[in-house]
Amino acid sequence: MMSRLRLLPSLLGAQAARLLATPRVQVSSCRRRSSEPPAASPGSRGGGVSSYMEEMYFAWLEDPQSVHKSWDSFFRRASEEASPGPTQSSSPSVVPESRALGSGRTKTSKLVEDHLAVQSLIRAYQIRGHHVAQLDPLGILDADLDSFVPSDLITTIDKLAFYDLRESDLDKEFQLPTTTFIGGSESTLSLREIIRRLESTYCQHVGLEFMFINDAEQCQWIRQKFETPGVMRFSSEEKRTLLARLVRSMRFEDFLARKWSSEKRFGLEGCEVMIPALKTIIDKSSEMGIENVILGMPHRGRLNVLANVIRKDLEQIFCQFDPKLEAADEGSGDVKYHLGMYHERINRVTNRNIALSLVANPSHLEAVDPVVQGKTKAEQFYRGDAQGRKVMSILVHGDAAFAGQGVVYETFHLSDLPSYTTNGTVHVVVNNQIGFTTDPRMARSSPYPTDVARVVNAPIFHVNADDPEAVIYVCSVAAEWRNTFNKDVVVDLVCYRRRGHNEMDEPMFTQPLMYKQIHRQVPVLKKYADKLIAEGTVTLQEFEEEIAKYDRICEEAYGRSKDKKILHIKHWLDSPWPGFFNVDGEPKSMTCPATGVPEDVLTHIGGVASSVPLEDFTIHTGLSRILRGRADMTRKRTADWALAEYMAFGSLLKEGIHVRLSGQDVERGTFSHRHHVLHDQEVDRRTCVPMNHLWPDQAPYTVCNSSLSEYGVLGFELGYAMASPNALVLWEAQFGDFHNTAQCIIDQFVSTGQAKWVRHNGIVLLLPHGMEGMGPEHSSARPERFLQMSNDDSDAYPVFSKDFEVSQLYDCNWIVANCSTPASYFHVLRRQILLPFRKPLIIFTPKSLLRHPDAKSSFDQMVSGTSFQRVIPEDGAAARAPGQVRRLIFCTGKVYYDLVKERSGRGLEEQVAITRLEQISPFPFDLIKQEAERYPGAELVWCQEEHKNMGYYDYISPRFMTILGRTRPICYFRIWDWPGHASHGWDRKCSGLQQARV
């Protein structure tokens, strides 16, 4: 054995030290597989492969069958070539020690070193070849922002010298390792041919980043797809189809430029290949069984995608350029390149049905990413498509936004979470190599804009967008990867932007050299057409006829768009709900039925909520006490906040309504009150969701803790709620103020959803609110922000009708509520589903009221025949003698209990009446008018916890003035001014308080 140990340094030689790493790129250490040596770390001298070779060599000495057959063959041949003659043994185990210790290298050690060098060279191309790939169509920029070329990949001579090889080795045959497919069916190749094939695979118009993936099977799959000789070959028919798609992409942009030269279009010029790229992904996915594709993208190229991918009628697109178009004809007047579309059609390549949905998106780039993912997840859920075999998503990004917007990372981070995964997304980056006017060197710190995808081990395929065939092949592989591994993949289309940021912009101000080259650049369509004509695939006449054919289609559609009145906006819905707004062809009745449920249903739900449905399931002793408390409340026919929520959810599940509750720590509840998921204290990861054991035929209940994200997760849940009106989808913030990091979703999608996108959405936001410690900003859910964005007119005196409540809700942009009782919370959740339409619901949920002894509701307030009360009037001594009441206090939420306690302590039950607003917006004008008129001699006071410029006062005060004809002021008082200060609140006249003046 000692002689064998002495042999190894000579056998492995100095060449084993020259491995894969250079100071430029850090190589991730993958888990070792028997057929694949690990990469050396940066700055190392190759110890990883050296030790690997030692292991392989010793294993072979002990048992030749224990190593891969290629290693067995290698060691046998090496030992045979090293054998000097018949007088010496040919076994490597008995190589003379004097030979091993000599200063010169034996033939065996030289052969081993050279094979190791070749393996290292192959691996260097696989890891770093993308850094020298020819990716920029303009030929002036490096896609990775670095012009340095790794020293082992510069020239053939440099490569040979780096790996201690000679020119004489170029024509030697080398055994190929199992970690490459460049040989095809051949197991050996000359070094010259090895380098040629590696250059062809890794250093031309495709740059592959995948060796950081820590799964050998996935790495092998990618190698096989790109290294196998001849894989990137296309039939004549495929080339003709590609040319036709390029014609449509480019001529559509040209047509818009001719007809509306002064209009902003955010055209696709410079990356026209994106259209055939997306169509290839869809074709390949359809071939593998996908029936529904949901797309999200920014504004650049959206009109082209609508026309040539979704296949929206061209006349509908051209109508959007009509200068006489009114804002009412297109929602809130949002720009045409923000709108979405849903279309079902036949995929002409596969002859299969395909549903395509392009989700509307504002100018907030990447905001649509989580929305698309949520909608995709919902579609998969409703189809029972747990593996994503029927529904998938495609996201198109700009390079600057992909690198710069944090929601991209938040969305990627959801990709493998059980309750959020969509089983893989194909990401297509339109890499213009510029963001508006910002050079990429000023816009990102990472080499590529796509580096964020590495955090989820998504392979990244960079491709020169002026090579259409390379693009199409890469997109086909990306679609197949997604279907095979159910993981994300990124296609980086390295292209350019032929015009400025928009068609009116002058890019020469800021990128003069780039745009000088762009002005000289031959369009990709001409390049590809010339190529096909030269090789005889098409004739010049056929090419010109294809152009004329599509130009004719555009002209005819343009004529139709002017000849007839077209109802614009109904054609731009990205999430239609067939049959929801009509019953038997007739519009639904604008009424809301009672939201109560039979008592036996409440009792049954209470029994399940206080039990553990599974046998041999050990729960925490503290949780046992909570369940006993629920059982006791059920016997007494009462419910606290958590039990009322349980009953609202459970009763909807019984009615076939899917309920999904998502957010940070929602399974237990931030304040440890919910406990919808029980954890076995003896068995790791064994859980029970009692609400899924209510009835045999109930709808499913999903409750899921989210990642520590608000922007991404709220966008996801909004997209989920978008898919179907027959689901109650709720997002709960851990604390109410945390919604501020999701403000973009709230501003762009939730508050403006119907006006901007003509889209109903029933998403529910649960925002814990209340000044109970944790600091003023952490205690407040900022109700003033939501009320400020409410669309009801404070100065318009309403016309009261029998259906005033429902008509108000129909006209509002969202509903804002702050419930003071569990029964109110129960009813408002059920009303959300029973309404004949959908509106977002914002609920300021309590913290202290979760366990407040007085914050309980009787079943009498929740049984059949009961409904949500927008206003809960005074029902005590003051209500029985309204003429004696000196002050009528209006409030909302938990403040009511503080006021009742203070009033009782002062013995003012007959002089002070307290009325609660359970729904703040839309403002309950009718009920407030009744309450004020009921106490004609009382001063009107609004009381809240928040400062005057926060909370509800600025919203309610002008509305009080309107409904009371500006005859009675409404005074502001803050609850914290009252306790212990008799002279401050209860005994002062309204004239001494802060009033809302005319």
UniProtKB/TrEMBL annotation:
This is 2-oxoglutarate dehydrogenase-like, mitochondrial. Its EC number is 1.2.4.2. GO terms for cellular component: mitochondrial matrix; oxoglutarate dehydrogenase complex. One of its GO terms (molecular function) is metal ion binding. Keywords: Calcium, Glycolysis, Magnesium, Metal-binding, Mitochondrion, Oxidoreductase, Signal, Thiamine pyrophosphate, Transit peptide. 2-oxoglutarate dehydrogenase (E1-like) component of the 2-oxoglutarate dehydrogenase multienzyme complex (OGDHC) which mediates the decarboxylation of alpha-ketoglutarate in the tricarboxylic acid cycle. The OGDHC complex catalyzes the overall conversion of 2-oxoglutarate to succinyl-CoA and CO(2) while reducing NAD(+) to NADH. The OGDHC complex is mainly active in the mitochondrion. Involved in the inhibition of cell proliferation and in apoptosis. Residues 1-16 form the signal peptide. The keyword Cell inner membrane does not apply. The keyword tRNA-binding does not apply. It is found in: Mitochondrion matrix. The OGDHC complex comprises multiple copies of three catalytic enzyme components, the 2-oxoglutarate dehydrogenase (OGDH/E1), the dihydrolipoamide dehydrogenase (DLST/E2) and the dihydrolipoamide dehydrogenase (DLD/E3). OGDHL/E1-like isoenzyme may replace OGDH in the OGDHC complex in the brain. The presence of either ODGH/E1 or ODGHL/E1-like isoenzyme in the complex may depend on its tissular distribution. It catalyses: N(6)-[(R)-lipoyl]-L-lysyl-[protein] + 2-oxoglutarate + H(+) = N(6)-[(R)-S(8)-succinyldihydrolipoyl]-L-lysyl-[protein] + CO2. Residues 25-47, 79-106 are annotated as: Disordered. SMART domains: Transket_pyr. CDD domains: TPP_E1_OGDC_like. The lineage of its organism: Eukaryota, Metazoa, Chordata, Craniata, Vertebrata. GO terms for biological process: glycolytic process; tricarboxylic acid cycle. PANTHER family: 2-OXOGLUTARATE DEHYDROGENASE, 2-OXOGLUTARATE DEHYDROGENASE-LIKE, MITOCHONDRIAL. Its cofactor is thiamine diphosphate; Mg(2+). Residues 639-852 form the Transketolase-like pyrimidine-binding domain. It is an enzyme of class 1 (oxidoreductase). It comes from Oryctolagus cuniculus (Rabbit).
